[in-house]
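quick one before i forget lol
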Amino acid sequence: MPIDRREFLKLASFAAGGLCLPVDPGWALPQSVPQRQGSAKKVVILGAGLAGLSAGWQLQAAGHDVTILEAQLHPGGRVHTIREGFSDDLYDEAGAGRIPNTHNLTLEWVNHFGLPLEPFYPTKLSEVTLLKGKRVITPVGKPIDMSQVPLDLTPNERKIGLSAFDEYYYGETMRKVGDAIRETWPPDLAPLADISMGEFLRRKGASPDAIHYMTFGFEGDAALDFIRDSYSHHTKTLSKIKGGNDRLPRAFAANLSNSIRYGCAVEHIERGKGRVRITYRREDVIDHVEGDAAICTIPYGVLRSIAVTPDWSPEKRKVIDNLYYGPVVRTSFQVSRRYWENEGLNGFGMSDKNFEVWHPTYGKPGRRGLLQAYVYEEYAHELDDMNDSDRIERMIGDMNEVHPGLRDYLETVIVKSWANDPWQKGAYVVYHPGQQEWYADICKPDGCVWFAGEHASPWPGWMQGALASGIKAAREINSAPSKTA
C-alpha cells in the first residue's frame, strides 16, 4: 500500500519496537529438511509457484516421491519477472516485488541459493507524489513540504505532516499487531478484524483526505489486515533479487526439474480414503496421477471452478467460494532515455488515483529505462474492464501526469492484469471486515489434501507466505501416518 514508508521509518522505527506478537509456533519454520517419518509417500503437488516448489523440495529431500503439476510452462506463479518484450536486457517485476528484512524465511532461501540482493528503493534524488493533479516533489529522506500539499486536512494534520500520519494514527497498534495473521488475537486487537481501515481511521479523527492518502484504495480492507500487512512495508529495508525475483523459483525448479510436469492444467480432484487421484489436461490429452496425498497451491479463485469428488467440507467450500483476491494491473513503460532524471528525480512516486510508481532500472547502466504503474483495487477493476488500447492510453496519460514527457520517449508498453490471468484470478488475498475468521479453515487440510500458497499462510501477499505454507504442508504430510495421509 503506497504509504510514505521511508519517511515514516525515520520517524517510527517500527521494526525496532519489538512489541509485536510472536508468530504462532506451527509457523516457526527453519530451512532444514525434516527426517522422513515411516515409509515414503507419493505426493502430488498442484502448482509450481513458491509454495509448491518449497513443499516439493522438503518432501523430495526427505525421500518421498513427488510429482508437481504446473499449468504454465514456467515456474514461479505470481513471482513473475517480465523479460520478453523489452530491449537491452531490461526486466521488470509483474508480481512479487519486495522482500522485507524481517522475512527471515525468504532471506534464508535467497541466501541458500546464493542470490545477491539489492535495495528496492533508492536513497538519492527526489520522488513525486501526485495529489489532486498537483505534483509534489520531495527529496528522499526529507518530509513533504506541507505548503505544497493540496489536501483538505485538519490544522492538526497539517502540523503533523503527511510523513508522520501512519505513526500518529496507527503506529502503536501496528507495533502490537506485527506482520503475521494469528488464529487468536488479544481482546484489544480482535475487534479490528470486523471494521474497515477507513472506519478505524475515522474513529481516530482522520479527515477524508488523510484517510485516502493513508489507504489509497484499501479503505475497505479490514483494519487488522491492513495494519498487519503495513508492518512488512515499514521494516528497515526492502530488497529485491538482483537479476529478477524469478531467480528464486527458478533455483528451486532447477533442482526439481525431473518432478515437474509443465503444461498440465488440473481438471478434477478425486479424494479417497488415504488416496488422491488428480486428472489433468496437457495439450488435448487427458491424463491422471495418483498419490497418497496432495498439496493444492492453486489460488481459491481458480480452485472454485475445478471439479472435486467428494466435495470439500462445508467450511472449506465456503472459503474457496468466497475468499477475495485483490485485482492488480502492472503497466510497464520502456523509454529511450530516463528523462525524469533531468528534474533530479529517481523515478519513484505515487498517485492518488491509487497506484504506485516504480523505477525498475534505477541504478542500472544505460540510458534506456523502465517505469511501472502498480495499480490496485477499484482502479484496477476499471482498467480490467477496458479494451487493450483504451487501457494503455489511460495508463500513458496517468503516468505522464507523474512524469511529464513520457509520450516523447515511449518505446513500448507491457500490461499484466492478475485478475484476468486464468491461472491466478487475482494478485493476493485481501481480508474484508468479518472475513479473517476464515483463516483457520483456509489453511486446514481436507482429508488427504493439504493447502498451501500465500492465501493459506500468515503472510498473504508475500513470498514468505508462499514458502512457509509449502514447507508446513510438506512437514505435516511427512509426519502423518501413511494410512491417513
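fyi Residues 5-23+151-236 form one domain.
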